[in-house]
Each structure stands twice: as structure tokens, then as C-alpha cells.
């Protein structure tokens, strides 16, 4: 589903990703772990098309379509969802309005009819219920006044409503208490654990992986995938640390 | 505010005006007078949406003791569109101006106000939101004058402008002239651009750029027409504002 080949990029002239390759098939959940500054969030933003994240080499495709030939909103319509580490606040725009416009923009790009107000509310209610988010919250402006945990839950409600093929979730577990982590983990499983979908989880910690079991775990350090394995790799990292598993020189590179 | 000679840019209140466009309609019509009798309340609105050329609307308003006047204005039409308010407030009265300026192309749009608190205990509020694209210029020049006897005056001016292009211009010039000593006058003016983080966030959810910008701009002017009492008027002003916004994104 997602094929990244030898990807390099720059932000303001500084090289961050240095030849990163990764393939994810439909039905798989992959986790990327790695020390601070390794380029984990940069990978997510680069795939999502954030301005100023310039691709300098390599390629990435979603179901065979070159991601970098599409604008960010076109990537979303093609089935990519980017879960933000720091969801953005948008005063004056309600979650419902935001999501309905987003969904209908995607549907239009795919040649589908827009959802009516009633159909959309029904869908939003169902997905909010799944994540234990009060519908009243969805009437409020996007992320404004939401706690860290509420923002992450709202992200997952967005994911449920938009129903992507591939979700790249950037530290969706940060800022969550244990109960919220369970709910968000269950949400990810319910929405994305399907034969025709895939997930790339970016995380610092093993704990989210207790709830969302990855099929593969990769370690990103110094802009490249330096080690890949099964779920046991995450446990090994948790036990021994990045320097212990990879060697201090790899982490520092 | 008109006299027989065409004004020049040397006059402060015409400093940002399009005087060529003005010349074509000079002299402008006599001002509209609004007198709100003591204890009464009045609501007025103006949709300045002239097709082309220039339009100047001058209002001279007196608000009697204990009276209230609410004015909503949307200034979007013509090469040059100018709306002015000369307001005199009686004892314990209130004047509220809520306005939006939305311009594109080479439009020059302005709201000019002079609010005089002539007596004690009067309050006034002015909220102006401007959205300017392409080479448009939008200006707010507003003076608040507090007379020596006008103790316990409470006045505010909240001016915010959003520039959609580097070539657009916003001028905000709140001015206070205060002769009383027990007075509260607050004013704030900001000029900004659309939030790029928000635009990327919206794009990442699939929203096309025009829809995303329109939503952010609607949010920016939301509130200006919130307290229009007549629903038909409110719908008219909001629909005109949105239609104009959509031509700019």
C-alpha cells in the first residue's frame, strides 16, 4: 500500500531524512520508534505534504500513485490520514463544520456525492461514540480549549469519519492518561485493523503497542530505518534503550 | 462631511481615499441624519455594494440621553466605497458599530468614524473586521472624543484586518482625544494573515484550499453580524459577505 524508497528531505536547507525505505502492505500495522530528533515526525509531515518539507531524493507512493505529485488535500482524498502530534486549534470553525467540509471535499475529489447534513451527523455520532467523545464537543471550535487527551480523541474521531486507507499517527499516545490510551488504542483497532487498511504508528513508547499490536517494528535513527523486527523489538528497546540496542554511535549519528 | 471643494489627501480623513474615483461623484449627497430620541433605541444597517465607480455614505447620528443606537455595516462594493459616522452621544447613551470591509482587485474601502462622548456615563463600541485581497486597500479611521464633562465614559475600538495577498493594504487608525479624567477607552488593532498551520491541518483532512480559506475567513468575520435583530437583514448581510469572500479565495 505504502512504498517509500530511499527518501531524503530537507527543512530550511537541513537534511533530516537520509535515504529512508519502508514498505507497508494492506492489513498491516507498523510502528516506528526512535530517539528524539531521529526524523520521525519529519517523515509523517513529509508524507503528508507539509509546506517547507522539501523532498530532495527518493520516492513514496500510495497504492502505486506518487504521493509527491499530489497536494496535501489530494493525498487525503487518495486515502492518507495524518494524525498530528499537536492538533491545530481553529477558532470559529466547529468540528462538525470542519469535518463535513473535509469529508465532502474528499468525496467530491473521488467523484462521490456529498453527504447530507443528516447523514453526516449520524456518521459523526457513531464515530464520536466509539471514542467516548461527547457530541457537544464536536459542536465546539476545532481543538479550542480541548485538553491534550481530548485533542487526541478528537483526532481519532476525525479518522473514523474520514475512513482513510492508510493512517500515519504521529505520537497519538503522547498526552494521554492510561484510560484515554486504552480508548484511543481500541479506536485505532476498530477503525483501522482491517484487511484493506494499514497503519504507521510513530511513538516513543511501548505502552501504546500494548493496545495496538504492531506486525512490524522499525527503528528510525539519523534519518534512516536502522533496524526492523517484530513486536519483540519494541520490548527490547523498552528494556535496553536505543543506545543499548543500536549502539551509541548509531543513535548519535 | 462634504463641502464644495474636492478634498485632498492632505486632509487626514481622506488620506487613504481614492480621490479620482471620488471626483466622478463629487459633490457627494448630503449626510443621512439619524436622531435617536431620549430613551429610545434604534437599529440601522448599510450594505454598501455599489456595482462600480464610487459610493460615499455619510451618517450624522445623535443619540439622546439614555438612548441606544446599533449600526451594522458591510462595505464591499465599488472602486471606492466610503462610509462615515459622526456620532454625538447624550448622557448615559450607547452607540455600537459593527462593521466589515471585504475588498479585492483595486478597491479602496473605508470606514471613518468620529464618536463624541459629550455627556457623562455614555458607552460606545466599535468592532471592525477587514479582509483584503489582491491590491485592495481597506482603512478604518476612528476618533473618540471625550468632552470635559463626559465622566465615566466607557469606549472601545476593536480593529482587525486580514491580508490575503502581499499586495493588499490595511490601515487602522484608532484615535483618542480625552478631556475628562474618569474615562475608560480601550482600543486594539491587528493586521494578520491566514494561519498556515490551520490551512495545512485542513488540507491534511482533505479540504481543498479554497474551501479551507473560505471557512477561516468566515470565522474571522463571524460575530460582526451576530446581533442583527432582524433575521432577514442578518441573512442579507451574511450572504453578501460570504459571496464577496468567495471571490477572493
The chain-level structural class of chain A is alpha/beta
Distance between the termini of chain A: 30 Å
Strand order of the largest sheet of chain B: 1-3-5-7-9-11
Helical percent range of chain A?
40-55%
Biggest protein-protein interface? A-B, 33 and 22 residues
Strand content of chain A: 25-35%
Number of helices of chain A: 10
Keywords:
heterodimer; A: 253 residues; alpha/beta; six-stranded mixed β-sheet; four-stranded antiparallel β-sheet; 12 strands; 28% strand; B: 249 residues; six-stranded parallel β-sheet; 4 helices; globular
Question: Can you give me a brief rundown of this structure?
Answer:
With 253 residues, chain A is an alpha/beta fold. Chain A has helices at residues 40-48, 72-77, 95-109, 117-130, 135-139, 148-162, 178-192, 207-211, 232-246, 248-252, and strands spanning 2-11, 14-24, 29-33, 53-62, 65-66, 80-83, 90-94, 141-142, 166-170, 198-202, 216-221, 224-229. Chain B is globular.
Give a verbal description of the structure.
The complex is a heterodimer of chains A (253) and B (249). With 253 residues, chain A is of the alpha/beta class. Chain A has helices spanning 40-48, 72-77, 95-109, 117-130, 135-139, 148-162, 178-192, 207-211, 232-246, 248-252, and strands at 2-11, 14-24, 29-33, 53-62, 65-66, 80-83, 90-94, 141-142, 166-170, 198-202, 216-221, 224-229. In chain A, strand 4 and strand 5 (65-66) form a beta hairpin. The radius of gyration of chain A is 18 Å and the shape is globular. Chain B contains four helices and twelve strands; from the N terminus they run H-E-E-E-E-E-E-E-E-E-E-E-E-H-H-H. Chain B has helices at residues 19-25, 196-204, 209-221, 231-248; strands spanning 32-36, 41-48, 54-63, 68-75, 80-89, 94-103, 108-117, 123-132, 137-146, 153-163, 169-178, 183-192. Chain B starts with 18 loop residues before the first helix and ends with a helix. The mean pLDDT of chain B is 95. Chains A and B meet through helix 2, strand 7 and helix 3 of A and helix 2 and helix 3 of B.
Amino acid at each position: 500500500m505504502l512504498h517509500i524508497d530511499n527518501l531524503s528531505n530537507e527543512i530550511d536547507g537541513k537534511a533530516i531524512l537520509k535515504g529512508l525505505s519502508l514498505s507497508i502492505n494492506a492489513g498491516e500495522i507498523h510502528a516506528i520508534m526512535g530517539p528524539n530528533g531521529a526524523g520521525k515526525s519529519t517523515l509523517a509531515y513529509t508524507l503528508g505534504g507539509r509546506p517547507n518539507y522539501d523532498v530532495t531524493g527518493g520516492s513514496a507512493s500510495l497504492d502505486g500513485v506518487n504521493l509527491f505529485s499530489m497536494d496535501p488535500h489530494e493525498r487525503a482524498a487518495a486515502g492518507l490520514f495524518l494524525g498530528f502530534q499537536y492538533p491545530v486549534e481553529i477558532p470559529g470553525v466547529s468540528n462538525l463544520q470542519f469535518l463535513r467540509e473535509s469529508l465532502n471535499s474528499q468525496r467530491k475529489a473521488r467523484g462521490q456525492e456529498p453527504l447530507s447534513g443528516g447523514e453526516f451527523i449520524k456518521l459523526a455520532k457513531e464515530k464520536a461514540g466509539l471514542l467516548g467523545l461527547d457530541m457537544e464537543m464536536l459542536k465546539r471550535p476545532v481543538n479550542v480549549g480541548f485538553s491534550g487527551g481530548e485533542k487526541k480523541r478528537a483526532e481519532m474521531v476525525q479518522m473514523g469519519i474520514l475512513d482513510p486507507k492508510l493512517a500515519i499517527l504521529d505520537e497519538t499516545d503522547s498526552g494521554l492518561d492510561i484510560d484515554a490510551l486504552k480508548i484511543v488504542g481500541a479506536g485505532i483497532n476498530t477503525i483501522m485493523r482491517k484487511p484493506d487498511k494499514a497503519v504507521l504508528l510513530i511513538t516513543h513508547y511501548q505502552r501504546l503497542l500494548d493496545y495496538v499490536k504492531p506486525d512490524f517494528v522499525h527503528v528510525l535513527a539519523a534519518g534512516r530505518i536502522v533496524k526492523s523486527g517484530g513486536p519483540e523489538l519494541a520490548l527490547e528497546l523498552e528494556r535496553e534503550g536505543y543506545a543499548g540496542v543500536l549502539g551509541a554511535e548509531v543513535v548519535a549519528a | 462631511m462634504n463641502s464644495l471643494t474636492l478634498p485632498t489627501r492632505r486632509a487626514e480623513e481622506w488620506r487613504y481615499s481614492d480621490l479620482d474615483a471620488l471626483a466622478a461623484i463629487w459633490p457627494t449627497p448630503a449626510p443621512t441624519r439619524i436622531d435617536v430620541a431620549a430613551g429610545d433605541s434604534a437599529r440601522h444597517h448599510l450594505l454598501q455594494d455599489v456595482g462600480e465607480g464610487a459610493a460615499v455614505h455619510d451618517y450624522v447620528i445623535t443619540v439622546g440621553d439614555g438612548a441606544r443606537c446599533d449600526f451594522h455595516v458591510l462595505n464591499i462594493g465599488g472602486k471606492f466605497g466610503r462610509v462615515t459616522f459622526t456620532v454625538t452621544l447624550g448622557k448615559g447613551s450607547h452607540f455600537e458599530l459593527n462593521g466589515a470591509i471585504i475588498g479585492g482587485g483595486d478597491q479602496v474601502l473605508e470606514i471613518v468614524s468620529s464618536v463624541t462622548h459629550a455627556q457623562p456615563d455614555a458607552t460606545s463600541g466599535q468592532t471592525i473586521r477587514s479582509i483584503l485581497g489582491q491590491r485592495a486597500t481597506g482603512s478604518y479611521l476612528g476618533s473618540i472624543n471625550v468632552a470635559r464633562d463626559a465622566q465615566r465614559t466607557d469606549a472601545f475600538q476593536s480593529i482587525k484586518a486580514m491580508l490575503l495577498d502581499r499586495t493588499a493594504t490595511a490601515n487602522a487608525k484608532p484615535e483618542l482625544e480625552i478631556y475628562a479624567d474618569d474615562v475608560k477607552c480601550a482600543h486594539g488593532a491587528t493586521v494578520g494573515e491566514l494561519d498556515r498551520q490551520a490551512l495545512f491541518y485542513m488540507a491534511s483532512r482533505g479540504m481543498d484550499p479554497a474551501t479551507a480559506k473560505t471557512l477561516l475567513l468566515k470565522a474571522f468575520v463571524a460575530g460582526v453580524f451576530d446581533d442583527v435583530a432582524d433575521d432577514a437583514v442578518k441573512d442579507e448581510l451574511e450572504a453578501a459577505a460570504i459571496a464577496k469572500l468567495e471571490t477572493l479565495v
